[in-house]
Amino acid sequence: MFSALKLWVVMLVVSVAFAVDIQVPETPASGGMTTITWTTDPSFTQPFSIELVHPDFNNAFAIANNVKASLGTLNVSLPTVAPGDGYTLEFVNITNINQKYGTSPSFSIAAAPSTTASSTATSPGTSGTAPSVSAASAE
Ligand SMILES: *[C@@H]1O[C@H](CO)[C@@H](O)[C@H](O)[C@H]1NC(C)=O
Ligand SMILES: *[C@@H]1O[C@H](CO)[C@@H](O)[C@H](O)[C@H]1NC(C)=O
């Protein structure tokens, strides 16, 4: 009986869907800055976390925490990920990532811009794992 009540509560929470509409970020690149924009129902006032999700990940990347819904836009830096499509952004409960407020349409992430030109931390000698940026397919 207790678990039945719990299930009912879970179903109730899921059915109270918030209207969150997440736009696809513009020209997202691996490790680069991108602008995320969204619109929400005025009644949606919960802070949320933003996760970057791909079917190939075991976990989601948290890219922003405790975001105010009223902002409507946020500049974030993306993690270094394999370029490709099928990425989505999810807005989730800050303490329970399984509670999703909204999911963006899927989009693709480009390879990091000028990986060879930039003089960022390429430690000489000891780096064992080189990121395979060369595997990027055009479009
Ligand atoms: C976010 O980035 C865009 C484009 O670079 C810029 O125009 C905008 O002012 C930035 N917004 C904030 C809040 O920093
Ligand atoms: C977020 O999750 C926590 C823990 O499950 C819960 O107590 C809280 O009510 C949730 N927040 C919203 C806005 O649903």
UniProtKB/TrEMBL annotation:
Q: Give the source's domain of life in one word.
A: Eukaryota
Q: Hey, what's the signal peptide range on this chain?
A: 1-19
Supply the Pfam families for this chain. Answer: Kre9_KNH
Alphabetical UniProt keywords: Signal
Keyword Signal, does the record have it?
Answer: yes
- Ranges where the record places region Disordered: 113-139
Signal keyword on record:
yes
Residue ranges of domain Yeast cell wall synthesis Kre9/Knh1-like N-terminal in the record: 30-109
Low complexity bias (residue ranges) = 113-132
Annotated protein name in UniProt:
Yeast cell wall synthesis Kre9/Knh1-like N-terminal domain-containing protein
Name its species. Answer: Mycena maculata
